[in-house]
Amino acid sequence: MYEGSTLYLLPVQGSDTSWYKNLLVDPTLKISVNGIEISARGKPVTDSNRVDDSVRKFKFKYGEGDVKRYYTKFDVAVEVTL
To answer: Cα–chain-centroid distance for residue 1?
Structure first.
């Protein structure tokens, strides 16, 4: 989810998600939108209040039902400043 100059990412399986584990080793991400690819640095978010805020933003944008359907663990998030 994109807000202002920040991209919020919510790993589907929380801290068990493979790409999240990779981010902890190397925070460089490649983001591709409409055929345009950029490199950026992801910042892991583990503070429960900030993770909850990201989850609320996802629920607001995508609907609570879809978030519950696709996401299984809500213990981490990632912020990317673009």
So the answer is: 8
pLDDT digits (tens, 9 = 90+) for 62-76: 999 999 999 999 999
Q: Which domain holds residue 49?
A: 2-81
58: tokens are: 């996802």
Q: Is residue 43 a contact partner of residue 79, using CB atoms and an 8 Å limit?
A: yes
CATH of the domain at 23: 2.30.110.10
* b/e code 65-76 from CB counts within 10 Å (16+ = b): eebeeebeebeb
- The number of distinct structural domains making up the chain is 1
Render pLDDT for 13-37 as a digit per residue (tens, 0 to 9).
999 999 999 999 999 999 998 999 9
For residue 66 the two structure tokens come to: 């879809």
Is 6:79 a contact under the CB 8 Å cutoff? yes
Q: Which two tokens stand for residue 75?
A: 């213990």
